Amino acid sequence: MLKGGKIGLRARHEDDIPTLRTELYDDVVNSARAEAGPWRPISPGSKDPRLVVDDGEPGSVAFSVVELEEGALAGTAALWGIDNHHRSAHIGLGLLPAERGKGYGTDVVATLCYYGFAVRGLQRLQIETLADNHAMLRSAERNGFIREGVLRSSAWVLGEFLDEVILGLLAQDWKPNSRG
Ligand SMILES: CC(C)(COP(=O)(O)OP(=O)(O)OC[C@H]1O[C@@H](n2cnc3c(N)ncnc32)[C@H](O)[C@@H]1OP(=O)(O)O)[C@@H](O)C(=O)NCCC(=O)NCCS
């Protein structure tokens, strides 16, 4: 397990799946805002890659987020779009509703940076988020990510076009253990 200050990132367990499905992916608003495509329900027993991890997939690494004190499931996190030529990857995360606003998101980003830069030797990490997702923007910026651009009206979300922000962090600018 990768340990941050408050959370850990571990492999997906079978019994994480029902909670992630009902609390994250059954939530139409959360899914529509966090994912690239339209919301669709996920059936129980589905092998949907958001829930069932393929350990042989080289382009992404998925984690379950747990809070360190009790070991309880707190959400999901991933490094995806891993490009070993350009040495870059994207970060994605989603916390269960009851676990938001406790500093876990900031800690998950920090721990994914450690995985991306120290474990995988990557040079650049990128986050895309809606321009009104202040908690995600702040979680990224607290870890040194810089706003690099705005994609105007690039996301169709529940009846309107919203802007997306791209944030990036380079290995040489990464400061492990210091967030500000
Ligand atoms: C986005 C998300 C991962 C952030 O994690 P979090 O644990 O809620 O965020 P933190 O508690 O670490 O807070 C980070 C910062 O955002 C601020 N913040 C938290 N919730 C906020 C909110 N609803 N509105 C505005 N600011 C907020 C905090 O005050 C903190 O700021 P600070 O560092 O200046 O004190 C989490 O809220 C989440 O899973 N949301 C739903 C899914 C999602 O949006 N995923 C990202 C898709 S790109």
UniProtKB/TrEMBL annotation:
Residues 15-172 form the N-acetyltransferase domain. CDD domains: NAT_SF. The keyword DNA damage does not apply. The keyword Transferase applies. Pfam families: Acetyltransf_3 (PF13302). SUPFAM superfamilies: Acyl-CoA N-acyltransferases (Nat). InterPro entries: Acyl_CoA_acyltransferase, GNAT_dom, Ribosomal_N-acetyltransferase. GO terms for cellular component: cytoplasm. GO terms for molecular function: protein N-terminal-serine acetyltransferase activity; protein-N-terminal-alanine acetyltransferase activity. Keywords: Transferase. This is Acetyltransferase.
